[in-house]
Amino acid sequence: MDASALQGRRVVVGVGGGIAAYKACELVRELGRAGAQVRVAMTEAAKQFVTPLTFQALSGHPVLTDYFDPNQEGNFGHLDLARWAELFVVSPATADLLARVRAGLAGDAVTTSLLAFRGPVLLAPAMNVAMWENRLTQENVAALVADPRFRLVGPGAGLLACGDVGSGRLAEVKDIVAAAAALLGSGPLAGKKVLLTAGPTREFLDPVRFISNPSTGKMGLALAEAARALGAKVTVVLGPVGAVDRTGLEVVDVVSAEDMAREVLARVETVDWFIATAAVSDWRPERRAPQKVKKGEAPEELRLVRTPDVLAEASRKVAGAKQRPLLVGFAAETEKVLEHAREKLERKGLDAIVANDVTVPGAGFGTDTNRVTVLTRTGVRKDLDGAKREVAQGILELLLAHAPALVGQEPGSAR
Q1: N or C: which end of the chain has fewer CB within 10 A?
Q2: Is 25 a catalytic residue?
């Protein structure tokens, strides 16, 4: 098992009501030891075998058991759980739970969360041998695994808790963890290296004053997490944004545009995709004072000089390479948004650009939502809006669909 595939990944364990529920405790612990962030949802029947408090202690988070409980839903409800997760593991998946999942029912914390979840699902069945071999159970399993989102691990065969011998044992915990790692390491970007820039840069006038912008890095980090969820090895060259979740990402902290250019240019030739979301300051003071400048000493005019154009320099560095990376830029505009974005796409030799009007409510700097238009140099256009995580997924889906055609041509060679 490649445990690194679980490092920093977001995994929900949905616990069904069977005697094997006690083994889900070990599963939660082992997933955590492998570096995963784990949250738990339980059916009402599962609470008869193991208490929610046990899973709360093992995961370090409250357990979702009742979506009618305002306190639970207000803290981290079933929709939040579904949006948060990258992988949903159902263990044990009892005969009853498998039937309800296949039917699309939503009568408990596990099935409601799972119905709202759009990612991969790992089913770990556990039940009596007669129940497992029953034609209806086999039909339910066959229908579920026919959907590429669903994978099966186990069941094993041997002496069951009821005393019968045969198939129906929950798979070994190590095998469930290995299957989870394999699922999270097998996305469409598995084996690919993705380099992103995110956040603002700061250009200091003196030790306490600087030129900057309101970027918080949220869009870039959402893209980084989405790329990681698709199997990529992700490096983020990150401007000063404060405390953020870095799990599962290689983060290189920078401050100025020159810092960002240096780190990007040292890496861009070795990656498969380069996505520049950072809001890089275009100017810096011509001189930086070594000490704080007092009001009476400040000049009437501030002379500025251009900073490195990180994206343009990266594009020039890989131009003509036999295997160059996919180049994607962002254009935060306040007027003539698409016109300016297309001009930037051409001028910097990009494959695609993501344009957004930062004056629109719910878009741009500091928000948790965004509204963007993705343009490619082959003429593709797509509008996306919603939570930044959802927009990030939409951007990557579009890039995955068109990357072969884009990278296979020289910039500007096709319209």
Answers
A1: C
A2: no
